[in-house]
Write a structure and sequence with these properties.
Strand order of the largest sheet: 9-8-7-6-5-4-3-10
Bound molecules: NADP nicotinamide-adenine-dinucleotide phosphate
Order of helices and strands: EEEHEHEHEHEHEHEHHEHH
Shape: globular
CATH architecture: Alpha-Beta Barrel
Distance between the termini: 53 Å
Strand content: 5-15%
CATH class: Alpha Beta
Number of helices: 10
Largest sheet: 8 strands, parallel
Structural class: alpha/beta
Number of domains: 1
């Protein structure tokens, strides 16, 4: 049976404007870094993407290297576009990135024009697209002049291969400079994708101010700290989790008693709010008006459903925020 999107999908989701731009993003977006690669079960990923779009998630985030193996998440998403989502292309915001090692030799990594332009062409081919909605430089390159990297992004927009561009993991001063360079070339920096969650708050130290001043949206990745800010690890390490499976991205040493203890305390607050820990962690990020959307991952439909219920309870009392702060500062 051909996929038919739920006709009620836009009634369940809220959308926030992405910085000073015309584009709005759903409060919850879905990333395909893990669980959508060649090593994963395609139909599970497909069911997650269907559930997401049926729930008003219009934004799907990819990168050249997502898999494993690298490239396979874009291939899987391309297959879903061909099978199911193609008729809805104009309702979708699809992003990709380049900046980490993708192919052998000196032209398949970091931030040269040579790498970014070739990589985006490869991504478009894997997904069967004429353009992506957002193309990111995935991480700052300490050696390539920023003018070159931003020049490549600006040209990609002018060539129509991406509608908007963004940057990921750039520090505050680099972000301001990247934004200035792009502006000079007639292109607005739409969005910044930093790591941000209750266990990693670096963006509060200057970046959010820059984003506000420059009118750049913000979509934090790993908002659940890869699963630590959910119930996933509260009773040990499940074999099928990111920390348990062979190609997972959490090393055994990353699981510390301190982290788990903090999550247990936070869960008590979540329970008092009739929420799960995952919902508390996502709502806490969305408390900031600089945040456009939270970029979650999921390995099954039930996790996505849990995370979507965050939207039912977004507000915090002052005493709840103070209690969370006390736990996070301890
Ligand atoms: N720009 C960058 O450098 C960068 C870096 C990393 C990620 N990203 C982007 O950000 C996206 C999200 O990152 P992430 O996957 O690390 O995000 P995350 O939401 O912090 O972690 C997702 C993982 O947490 C667990 N999980 C999620 N919801 C759950 C729930 N309700 N209950 C229990 N466990 C739950 C699952 O782990 P299990 O798989 O163990 O079930 C899931 O795979 C990526 O897909 C990618 O698009 C970007």
């Amino acid at each position: 049976m051909p996929y038919q999107a739920d006709s009620q999908r836009y009634e369940r989701m809220s959308y926030r404007r992405c910085g000073r731009s015309g584009l709005k993003l759903p409060l919850v977006s879905l990333g395909l870094w893990q669980n959508f690669g060649g090593v994963d079960v395609y139909e599970t990923g497909r069911a997650i993407v269907h559930k997401a779009f049926d729930s008003g998630i219009t934004h799907f985030d990819l990168a050249n290297n997502y898999g494993p193996p690298p490239g396979s998440a874009e291939e899987a998403f391309g297959k879903m576009l061909a099978q199911d989502l193609g008729p809805y292309r104009d309702e979708l915001v699809i992003s990709s990135k380049a900046g980490y090692g993708m192919w052998d030799g000196p032209y398949g990594d970091w931030g040269s024009r040579k790498y970014l332009v070739a990589s985006l062409d490869q991504s478009l081919q894997r997904m069967g697209l004429d353009y992506v909605d957002i193309f990111y430089h995935h991480r700052p390159d300490p050696e390539t002049p920023l003018e070159e990297t931003m020049g490549a992004l600006a040209d990609i927009v002018k060539q129509g291969k991406a509608l908007y561009v963004g940057i990921s993991s750039y520090r505050p001063a680099e972000t301001r400079e990247a934004s200035r360079l792009l502006k000079e070339m007639g292109v607005h920096c739409l969005i910044h994708q930093p790591r941000y969650n209750m266990n990693d708050r670096w963006i509060e130290d200057g970046l959010t101010d820059v984003l506000k001043e420059e009118g750049i949206g913000c979509i934090p990745f790993s908002p659940l700290d890869q699963g630590f800010l959910t119930s996933r690890y509260l009773k040990g390490v499940p074999q099928d989790s990111r920390a348990g499976k062979a190609h997972g991205t959490i090393a055994k040493d990353d699981i510390t008693e301190q982290k788990i203890e903090r999550s247990r305390k936070l869960q008590t607050i979540a329970e008092a709010r009739n929420q799960t820990l995952a919902q508390l962690a996502l709502a806490w990020i969305l408390r900031l008006d600089t945040i456009t959307s939270v970029l979650i991952g999921a390995s099954r439909v039930s996790q996505l459903e849990d995370n979507l219920r965050t939207l039912d309870h977004l507000d915090f009392s002052d005493s709840e925020l103070a209690e969370i702060e006390r736990i996070l500062q301890a």
